[in-house]
Amino acid sequence: MNMLSKLLAIALSVSALTFASAASAQEAPDALVKRISDDVLNTAKTDKDIQAGNISRIVSLVEEKILPYVDSERMTSLAAGRYWRQATPEQQKQLITEFRSLLIYTYSGALSQVRDQKIEYKPLRADPADTEVEVRSQVIQSRGEPIQLSYRLEKLANGWKLYDVNVMGAWLVEAYKGTFQSEINKGGIDGLIKSLSDKNKQLASRSSAKK
Question: Where does the UniProt annotation place the signal sequence (predicted)?
């Protein structure tokens, strides 16, 4: 699972960043990804603060460039599975907040690792009327085999949103689903919220120590 986490971190830093600019809701999802990716990858590669691991700079970039293009509610509800409907509106809100914070730290930890990666895209298999699509690609590195990536997106009123990422056959939501279920079985919805909160506090502490 540690290796999967590392691959997810690298993949998320490369793939999720491609949603870094406002674009027309009419633009095809693969076109959006291709158009934005080069610019954002260049930023990650050339920004000295990001390369040096400046946490405040990285977190700011993640919040500004990535999160607006992620459907945090759907991602959280999918990870929680059937337990999502058992949570109160307030618990759902807390889960979304804590899970989003966890993803911020995941993205932030990976951004400083971006060096020479390039993305190659595969033809989009979708109809113009589709409201959910899967964009497939692979990350090419100077060393090692290409990392196979797929992105699940949905078309909402305000444009395309990312809600899941597949890294070498493993979907991000599924990877978290087992952890969510385990924590809920031990302490209920509140137990999961506390677990995520504690993890985020731990990551925040580590981040502060690096400043």
Answer: 1-25
